[in-house]
Fold these 2 entries.
Entry 1:
Amino acid sequence: MYKRMLQIIRKHKKSLIIFLFFGIMIVPFISFSQSKIDSLKDSYASTKTDSGKVTLLNSIGYAYYTTYKADSLSTAFTYSREGLKLAKNINDAKKAAETMYTIGFLYWAEGNNDSAIFCIKQAANYFDALPSSKEGIKIHKMLGDVYRDATQYPLATDAYAKALDIARSLKDSVNMQLIYYNEALMYDLTDQYELAREQAKKAVDISLLTKQYRAVIRAYNVIGSTYAKQSSNSAAATAYFNALEINEKYLHDDDVTGVLTVNLGNVYEGMKDSANAMKYYRQSLAIFTKENKKVNMAQVLGNMGNVYMDAGDYKIAEQYEIKSLDVMKQMGDNYYTALCYTNVAEFYNDTKQYDKAEAYYNYALGLQENRNDKEGMVFTLSGIGELNKNKGNYAKALEYDLKSYNDAVEIKLTGQVRDQAKNLSEIYDKLHQPDKAFFYYKQYISVRDSIENKAEAKKLINAELSHEFEQKQQAEKLEDEKQKAIADEREKRNGIIRNVYLVGFVIVLFFTGLLLRNLLRIRKSNQIITEQKLEVEKQKMIVEEKNKDITDSIKYASRIQRALLTTHEYIGRQVKENFIFFKPRDIVSGDFYWAFATGSPGRTGTFYLACCDCTGHGVPGAFMSLLNISMLNESIIERKTLRPDFVLNEIRDSIIKALNPEKADTESKDGMDCALCAIDFTNNTMQLACANNPVWIVKAGASSLIEIEPDKMPVGIQYGDQKPFTLNSVKLNEGDCIYMFTDGYADQFGGPKGKKFKYKQLQDIVMANAGRPMSEQKEILEKTFGEWMGGLEQVDDVLVIGIKV
């Protein structure tokens, strides 16, 4: 019922490693016995004041919660709600606010974050109107915790900042370090590891000054886990040893020792130091066995199984992994069940039981997709790629390894970026694509060198030097054999010459002269070829260096462009059923999408969604996309122009002013084709304006689509009069599907005759699959596009957006 602070943080070559966080909660819990609850009930019966009864009803409710029995949470709600009712009857606003906080806390414990936020905000409204107090700190800190669990991280940040301001004003060091620690956890969850360490170190500093040693250990554990996620093994180990030193000096807590030693074992396992890994695993297992903590025992046994699997002792490894999986399934913990499924799959993969391995990988991936566990999915996708590579299905292996690599890059999981780059290099080599194999091998070397410590680098250098030395010895041996063969051949030839000389001196002189003349010609030709080769190599190096500089600049521009695109998570919060198929032709794109929601978070205001195709593609198109994104933000967000047709009119005027201020007669037609929709989910209506690009709507259960015809003019510079854009309005129903797109998909050449795909085929695909989930529709569009394009080059940027009402 209460939230356990456990987290997976990385995967080394084969096995998943579970790192543990402490069960030391942000709000310290006190477990109440039944006798204590009975005592509170007796006090309630004897209390004469109503305000005192409200306080006791809250205390009884909280006491029931901490018993952690099957019905304890519902009983806790009953008493707390009775307290709220009484507080309202006596018009005691303070007691009502305190009770709302307790009820909000219980909702949070139940996992109902929305109700928790509503109740805690009610309490915050009351205490914010009063002078700063510890109640205000507690309420805003709790609000931050709930927002964090609800993945509403900006709101969590605001709540923690408010709590921290109050704590500073009251010089409350205990709550200050707790808030810093909570912020560190939040940044850790969002993969902002440097920020997580920064806040955790603040918690360490305050806790050391105030002698809060458990808080010091807890913060060091976060620091260690973030370093471990980034494969900074020595820094992670240092943090854990610091925590161990504090525990041994001041606390002597076996539970703390158990958590820290298993995390140290994980660090050594990541460094492939199996001896030290097993040493610390055994220490932690002994502690958890003594304390009868079965879940922790299962986690450590699973990690020990990984060590045996890496060592090739598969029989023992299987016993550990299956036992760990069974315990997790009994506990009903899908997060760790998925990890255990993956570990078992790795075992069956290594023992070539591929059918079993595939089944367990799919179990894990299903659980991780349901939880949107991107980090876990990175490892599982990598495992499926390894499985297909072992089966010889390199095309399938490439598909999964690319997904794993891209997700690892997105969440900055550097250890897995390194491993996946190496895997991709090997697969492309098997597929006879040397350019891509070499590209990913360079990525592997670059990431590897950036994350490995000096000791590991020294070992690698020694191994490489040893390998080079062996290669050199082999080359020298071959050269000696070659020289010996040449010498033998020369001796044989000299014998022939001597024999020929005996036949006739003249003939020998003739052939000798001919040989010398040819030798001089060959030597001169070789000298010319060598000089030409050196010049070509020199020019090649110059071109490659220039190309690298240009490519690096374009890639950096691509990261900037993608940072300006609206995130999938933001769009997903407004429209749960959606897909975005975005495939730039080059590194940067002239196509882009943009979204913005007015009103409070959720679907209570108007949701704006734009699908745009700027003039050109590549670098020119990217420049235009940045300009148009800026103008959309300026028109809708800053100027608050809300009608789509007015927005496109404004942007057109702005583009003309920016690119052709003197209205010179020019052949330039800079601008964009665009479809801009404004969806009111409350009234189920949509207003839209279209410039050259139509919008398709498939009504729920319909057998045909509705096409919203566009205005045949761009948002930008054109010949003739500038007519205003047309406003279209559509009534929506639940289940209606809306499709927006640029011309890249329909204009792609391919198929058996190398012709354009065209909009008619795209309409057929949309109609045939409109009833499917949006994620499946995206997969079908991606697969169809790839099959149609075949071996031809992509001719334009591609963008297709689908949403379901």
Entry 2:
Amino acid sequence: MGVRDSIKRVDAYDKVTGAAKYTADLLPTGALVAKVVRSTIANGRVIRFDLSEALKVKGLVRIFTCFDVPDIEFATAGHPYVLDKTKGDVYDRKLLNERVRVYGDDIAAVVATDDVAASRAARLIKVEYEEYAPILSVAAALAPENAPLHPNVRETNLLAKSGYQVGTGTYDEAKAAEADAVEVVAEYGTQIVQHCHLEPPQSFAYMEAGRIVVVTSTQIPHIVRRVVGQALGIPWAQVRIIKPYIGGGFGNKQDVLYEPLNAYLTQQLGGRPVWLEISREETMACTRVRHAIHAKVKGLARRDGTLVARKLEAYSDQGGYASHGHSICANTITMFKQLYHDHVVTEGDGYTVYTNHTTAGAMRGYGIPQSDFFAECLMDDLARKLTIDPLEFRLKNCLPVGYVDPGTGIPAYSNGLRECVAKGRELFRWDEKRAAYANQTGDRRRGVGVALFDYKTGVYPISLEVSNCRMFMNEDGSISLQMGATEIGQGADTVFTQMAAEATGITESNIHIVSTQDTDVAPFDLGAYASRQTYICGMAIKRTGETLKRKIVEYASIKLKKPAAELDVEADWVVRRTNRQKLLALAEMALEAQYNRDRAERLFAEEHVDIHENTIATGCTFAEVEVDIPLGKVKILNILNVHDSGILINPKLAEGQVQGGMSMGIGYALFEELLYDDKGRPLNDNLLDYKLPTAMDQPDLTAAFVELTDPSGPFGNKALGEPPAISPAPAIRNAVLQATGVAFNALPLSPQKLVEGFTAAGLIKEGCKHV
């Protein structure tokens, strides 16, 4: 019972039997259907629409264009509200956009009685544009001849920049003082990828008692409520958001995507229910993607392996709208300074730039997979130039015990990074394989690689961190648990239940968690992001559970005529604290408490936490690959993640989280990339042409843990949701480097890229045959 127990998921039965209700399952009969009309250019302006043919479609209810919607710009990022608007998210888009900034921009919406009529009418709308040349790179966006995409927001296409200098002097000064040091100067790059969650963004909206209700698949229901109100220019209290079960999000649904538009449609149609679901192609091309970031990196190390200085310049492709904006690139440069300690100085500068690519937003890891790729490629390249073991080089310089980030003040209260490396080294047989794969020849070669990572837990002190929890006892002694935090497929409801059991002494089978979040009744919470929920929301659960237990014990003390200090709750019984003797069943006591005419009491607790705390999770990936040089094919033979995430609330769920993240990391390393033509049109915005790894592309995914109690965590726990996706890609890249001696500095490591690199390195001769 409680934490550290691999209980079965509380939602497992309903999900595997189909009983769980997702947004589409709740759609009322007779709902109207909406379709978004999208631009067929990436950069320009809508001049006029020709609606004549579309208006003839049978079943059409109404067409709304960008010229009809309120002239209100709003922000879509799933961040807490900031009272000082100048310090918050960027307000740069409308419900429908007359100024086109991405291919497939939302320019009109069609509402009809059914899907066929809506789709037909949308196709018949003709649009006249004033088209501009698309801006498809950061360099082009920053060129002075290219006009700003958001002149009302920024005078140029530079959305934001930030930087730091930690240590003494500058990188160039350190280099001048270290005449015998070894230097690596390189450029590394990561690509645009999409989340590919199973359930597309979908919602239906209607009005009830003069208020707008939106039932939606989102990670952030309370934030959606606020943004809908802002986008429509109405009081937030006139909006109600309901989040049922959700089929994945990975950060894409940490943006407010189409809920404001759907709310507007029902408002304009007298409150009639309107269903708005976008297709897989629209999801991939028109929602959010992971930022492509180009990095210019320098690293300086002494001959004994001591890091002297490093410098990072990161250029982030934001796409057409701000969404989460510079926070991702800022995260990227922050992690670069954390993971390794430079003896003299570390410098970092980040630039986030508008382009006409798909808008980039939150995705699992939030800028850290990019940063880790830059940092870990550099470490291997330096180690290779120094001719020292790359693992020993890392251990000499990595995150020290007692580390405190000099910029944010975030401490590593517990730091199991070296323990993770030691455990992985042994399980993976690093030293044996590293020696065995040295100095290979031939067309097929093997190699091993490693990458470390660190990741903070939640968003304090950058942003607000609050959570609330509510518990009340039912007549049979069970309790109902309500959270504003969201289950999005990651197992949150299960660990919340276990935490509640640990805090109250009531068994999981007698805890009924309400998985649906309804902003009218659910306690306020910011939602599922930043690996925050078991840490931040766990504190709310612990405090609420302790309050409820105290009330139970106080009521029982009167009935039992014993001091409350002598009593406790354990496994659904009030027990004697000293010898754990069972004294009173909660099922008996709860009914009496509810209906006792002399002393009726509702055993209820609700608590709020405002957290001014954070901590750092760490870990590593070891990868073993076989490279077919003439074919440019990488086969992963073995991959291992080792994590220090504090105490594991549910070890089996933790293992599943890690395996899912590793799979994502493999796709990032070898297969996935959203491609565009020279007009800015996505070329592979479907699951046939966009190459996700399949079961055939992955070996067994091995997860291991080092459990060190983190004193700041409610149960000794810290971040685990996002870290598993961070370090697989650089570990795989570094394994290819050992196998072939060729350094590939841009993801993904696709066959074409590999063949070109091997050819340039002389490993593939013209006319050679594969043996």
